[in-house]
Write a structure and sequence with these properties.
CATH architecture of the largest domain: Beta Barrel
Distance between the termini: 22 Å
Number of domains: 3
Length: about 325
């Protein structure tokens, strides 16, 4: 188990070292070799070879991710029009509504390579939903650097989210809703199901109860009244309004608990719980916290179904490898 943790740490340092200077790379490798000297069980030639493979494999994965990086914002002056679809649920950011938007068309011409921007919509009076196709008019801006040493670096944060800039909108810009989610990819199918579930919630007459259920289940807080959000902040329970790993654990626990009441063993319900957990991850928008929890829970359920004992460290290491090989930038959302 110690070797698995050691190799996972080497892979993580390799991913991080891609953005470091050569001195940082030397420091990372020196730290790993000191770890080996501190633990005699790691002092082996095969361990050294695997260490270098994991470290430089992480470095190479970061390099490949940067090569596939979307192009920068087009150099356009004045307002521009774009068409694309929402990648996540809109949320409040001060007096604005923000969400990530995948641009497929710039002006009247489709782009050669779609790219992601952060839309900051000031005075938004619409209710966009994930997967919806919109026509938007605004101004492209680059992310701002830190206002003071140690401050929030918006440009670096946008890079970790895979966005190449910001699209600024206000209430006077032209916007037009084009169509609901289309296509049959897992993301779009989840957006369709989410839209139907939100339509069912609209039948609840009590507005605050409807908004609270949407916030707890999907992390949808745009329709939550300001005074209710303030009450959650004052009581320190704002985390309940974010779709997180707790929701994944509750879902799996409810399915296994219901099976126990019906006289069914956990291993019989595990094949049912696994697709439910994965489906909920897509419904909640596949945020990094949800993805990590869903991956770990799925691995634990798979071990339960196969009759194997579950080692939390093994599940954690395997989850880290799977997630970071798929999307290396999730390392910045730990």
């Amino acid at each position: 188990m110690e070797r698995r943790i050691f190799f996972t740490a080497a892979f993580l340092l390799g991913l991080l070292a891609f953005k470091w200077s050569p001195a940082g790379v030397v420091f990372a490798l020196s730290s790993l070799f000191l770890w080996m000297l501190w633990r005699p069980s790691l002092c082996h030639s095969k361990v050294v070879c695997l260490l270098m493979i994991c470290f430089w494999g992480g470095w190479l994965r970061g390099w490949v991710d940067c090569r596939r990086e979307a192009p920068g914002l087009p150099d356009l002056k004045g307002p521009v029009t774009v068409q694309g679809y929402l990648l996540d649920s809109p949320r409040r950011w001060g007096s604005s509504t923000v969400f990530f938007f995948r641009v497929n068309q710039l002006g009247q011409m489709p782009v050669e390579r779609s790219f992601t921007v952060l839309v900051r919509w000031s005075g938004c009076e619409q209710s966009p939903a994930p997967g919806d196709t919109w026509y938007l008019e605004g101004r492209f801006t680059q992310g701002k650097g830190p206002a003071y040493p140690g401050g929030f670096d918006e440009a670096s944060w946008l890079w970790t989210q895979g966005a190449c800039g910001v699209l600024q909108l206000n209430r006077y810009n032209a916007t037009h809703y084009m169509s609901p989610p289309r296509g049959y990819t897992p993301r779009m199918l989840a957006c369709r199901l989410r839209a139907r579930m939100m339509a069912v919630l609209e039948r609840i007459e009590h507005k605050e109860a409807r908004a609270l259920i949407a916030g707890v289940v999907f992390g949808e807080t745009q329709s939550l009244p300001d005074h209710l959000q303030e009450q959650f902040r004052r009581t320190g329970t704002s985390h309940l309004l974010a779709a997180s790993g707790m929701n994944v654990a509750l879902l799996a626990g409810l399915i296994l608990g219901a099976g126990k009441l019906c006289g069914l063993g956990p291993w019989r319900l595990a094949p049912l719980a696994m697709p439910a957990v994965i489906g909920y991850a897509f419904l909640a928008g596949c945020a990094p916290s949800i993805t990590r929890a869903a991956t770990g829970t799925t691995l634990a359920l798979l071990a339960l179904w196969m009759g194997r004992t579950t080692n939390p460290w093994n599940s954690l290491c395997l989850s880290v490898w799977l997630l970071l090989l798929w999307d290396p930038r999730q390392i910045y959302d730990l």
